[in-house]
C-alpha cells in the first residue's frame, strides 16, 4: 500500500496531462490526497476524481465546493473531508457506501441529513456548524449500524439548550453513539436517555 500525500500540482498534472515533478507520487497510486485551502479555491468537483482508484483519504476542506459528484472510481475511499465549503446537500455517496468510514462536513450550509442511509460502515460523522434545525434529522442516523462518533455543535438544534440537554437529545435519537461533540458518552447519560 502506498501512503503518500499527493500535491495539487500532481492532481493538476493528472487532470491536464502535464508531466509531474520527479519526487511527486502518481495521483492514481496515492492513498492520501489533500487539496485543502487551494488558491484559488476549488469551486467544482469533476470526474477526474474518479481516476484516484487507490485513494483512501480525500481532503478537500476549505475550498468553495457547493455540491458532491458521484465517486464511482473511488472504491477504496474510507475518509472524506469536505469541511469549510459551501455544500448544501449530502448526496451521491452510493458508490462509496461500502467503504466510507468517516465523513467530515462541518462548516457548510447543510440543513438535512438525507443521503446517509446507505453508508453501512460509517463510524464518524462531523456536521457541526451547519444549518440543522430539526431534531428529526438525527432520527435518520439511527439506522447506521456502526456510527459511534458524531459532532453537531454550532447547529440551530442546539440553540437554547444546555450541553447536557443537547447530548441527551442526541443519545435518545442515536443510542449507539459512543462520542458526542468530542466527549465520550458516560453510562449515566446513556441511562438518562433510556429513562432509567
UniProtKB/TrEMBL annotation:
Annotated localization: Cytoplasm, Cytoskeleton, Cilium axoneme
InterPro entries: Leu-rich_rpt, Leu-rich_rpt_4
Family matches, as PROSITE patterns: LRR (PS51450)
One GO cellular component term: dynein complex
Record Pfam families: LRR_4
Keyword annotations from UniProtKB, A to Z: Cell projection, Cytoplasm, Cytoskeleton, Dynein, Leucine-rich repeat, Microtubule, Motor protein, Repeat
Family: Belongs to the dynein light chain LC1-type family.
Protein name: Dynein axonemal light chain 1
Gene of this entry: DNAL1_2
